[in-house]
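Exercise 7. Given the encoded structure of a 106-residue chain, write a plausible sequence.
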C-alpha cells in the first residue's frame, strides 16, 4: 500500500493536466494546431511534456488498477508490452522530440 503515496499524486497531476488541456483547448480559437499550441501555453514543448506525462501516468495507473482489482491477466499483459527494447526506443525518442519541439520547428 506504500505505493499509493506515489501513485495518488501522479494521478492527481495527470488529471490536472488533462483538465487544463481540455479547458484551454475549448477556450482557444483558430485551427486545430493553433488550439493545441494555445493549450500548451504557447509552447509545443509543454504540450509534448504533458502528453508524455499522460501516457506514463495512464500506463502506470492501469497496472496499479489491475493489481488492485485482482486482475493479473491485465497487469501481466501491460507488463509484457513494456519490454526493454521499447523502453530504450522511448528513452531515445522522447528527448529527440523534445529537442525538436524546443527549437520551435514543428
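Solution.
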Amino acid at each position: 500500500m506504500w505505493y499509493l503515496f506515489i501513485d495518488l499524486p501522479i494521478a492527481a497531476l495527470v488529471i490536472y493536466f488533462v483538465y487544463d488541456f481540455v479547458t484551454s483547448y475549448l477556450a482557444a480559437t483558430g485551427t486545430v494546431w493553433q488550439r493545441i499550441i494555445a493549450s500548451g501555453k504557447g509552447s509545443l514543448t509543454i504540450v509534448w511534456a504533458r502528453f508524455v506525462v499522460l501516457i506514463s501516468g495512464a500506463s502506470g495507473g492501469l497496472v496499479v488498477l489491475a493489481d488492485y482489482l485482482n486482475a493479473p491477466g491485465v497487469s501481466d499483459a501491460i507488463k509484457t508490452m513494456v519490454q526493454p527494447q521499447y523502453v530504450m526506443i522511448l528513452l531515445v525518442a522522447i528527448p529527440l522530440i523534445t529537442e525538436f519541439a524546443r527549437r520551435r520547428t514543428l
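Remark. Residues 4-102 form one domain. Students should compare their own answers with the one above.
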